[in-house]
Amino acid sequence: MTLSNLLTITPWPALSAAILLLLLMAALYFARGTAHQLILAAAGALARGLRVAAYSVIRAQERLAARNRVVLLAAGRESKERLVEREFARVADTVRKDLAGYPDMHRRLSESIQRIEEDQENAAEVPPEAPGWAQAVKVVANLDARNAGADILSDIHKSMVKAHAEAMDDYRKASSERHALLRRMMPDWRAILETLGHVNKSVESVIGRSQAIDRHMEEYEAIVRGEDRAVSVLSSSSIVYFFVSALVLAVATAGTAVNFTLIARPMAEMVGGTNFIGAYRTADIAALVIIMVEISMGLFLMESLRITRLFPVIGALSDKIRVRMVIITFLILLLMASIEAGLAYMREVLLLDEMATNALLRGDASASLVNSHLWITTAAQMGMGFVLPFALVFVAIPLETFVHSLRTVVGLASTAVLQALALILRLLGNGFRHLGGLACRVYDLPLFVPLWIETRLLGGNGNGHATASAAVAAEPEAWKEARS
Amino acid sequence: MKRLLLLLASALALQSCAPPAARNTGVYLLVDTSGSYNRNIGKAEQIALYTLTRLQSSDSIAVARIDTGSFTEKDIIAKATFDDRPSTANAQKRAFASRVEKFIDQSPPAAYTDITGGLLQAIEFLNEKHPARKEILILSDMKEELAKGYVRDVPLDFTGFDVVALNVTKLRSDNFDPRLYLNRLDEWRARVEKGGGHWRVINDLDHLDGLL
Lengths: 484, 212
Hints:
Chain A is mainly alpha-helical.
């Protein structure tokens, strides 16, 4: 039944329309309560569902945040343990080195001190001999022997002058010897000073290390206690490490690409240039495999040297096996680097051959001329082919940092995403709730005439208002249910 | 879940073990040596050398002449399938270029022009090589003249072939009536496209960039 048919229920379309409108209004008016309940129930169900979903997401986000916190604290604890362990190892090295030399140092110091003591004793000044002639001269001078005393005195004077000269010589000789002894003490003093300087430096180093250990231990204790400040510091550090390591890995990837370019063309000579595995050339895959093997060897080398700790099994090996592993991986790397240098040389040869062939086919004689400085590029390519595998060894360090920080960063990003999702769900839930109320108002809008009449008629006994607002009053009840 | 992963792994393994799809190119260059076209034969070397610069390892090439009866292996002047090692392929290219040059210097003019026979030979050669892309290059005025007794009213199967007519020169009669030239090209186009092939004409040999 179309609208035009409906408008023909009476001969006058306007009347038909008015009747239809009245009937429609009547139908809407009588169905108003049920319709309101339906709208509110639907909106409530949707809002409740969304709120439940938001609640679940918040729970998941909380669980994830807790897990992230645990992971972060564990990573921080492990990192601090490594740092403290390293500091202790350094202190142990310093102490071992100094203590190992301590008996020798003690002996040298004792010998020096003993020599100084002996020299000091020897250098003690001998008091000058007491003048024995003075009393005798006085006695002779008092003798009344005419001029006999003068001769005696003259002889005595001569003897005294002679004795004085001899005494002075002896004194000078003794002083010279004492000075020589004092001079001999100087190297001993210097040796003692130097030894004590070494001791001072070692002690200062140990003190510095102990202060660093104290600092690390304080941070470690904060991490163990799970303090928020420690978590915050670890989070920001992880993000910084993540971006820095990602940058270094990007540089390493560029290096890998250069390495790949160096060896991909000559690999075609070895495995054929037209064989494919899937959509990729076998030569390209072979070149990539060589580079990947080099990177793997680099990882194992770093693990064996205990610079990185990606593989606990390697770290737990005995020192003897680890050293063997270091030697083996280094030799494999050396072999790979040599192969790459050879391939880089082969690349240049192939390139020249291809250029010469194309020049011949194009009839371009000048293009086939060989540049006399071409050896520079050849040598550079070979050098890069040899050096790049060793440079790629160090990828292990940023890779380890990247892997460790990735967990934290992914956890933080996931938490943020879940938070945003929860917010959106809550907003949608609230939106649907208000949409239900709005839909009720929109429903009532075309019924304003019957509603007004109802209010006027039943307004006296107050029932009208109660009836009119029955559905609206039901709204909070529905919402209480929804919230529960 | 485990079964699904196992299936996926098996599918990948099978895919990697499956024989790889061909990616090489096969080129057959037909050179018209008839009296009316013999003066243009020098251009055959230019095209052959250009083609060689475009070909890679595992590609195939043959240069054959169109003469009185072209449906024969004897008319193939040089043929090669390049090795998959680039250095060997380069050596093969140089040897091939040398053979083509020798042919150009010593090519005798033919009395008739059996283009259809040459095309049949080209189809046979390229189908044997199974290349992914099959190109037949015809350096001719496309005016077929068959000797008495030669039957060439045979259907040609050009499915998967690109047929390129190069340097299609105008004959003296074409100058009097250009419709002859246009009709000749249209007839060959119709014949190639009827056989399932793709037809092209390149008259400007200085711009062969789109040839391969």
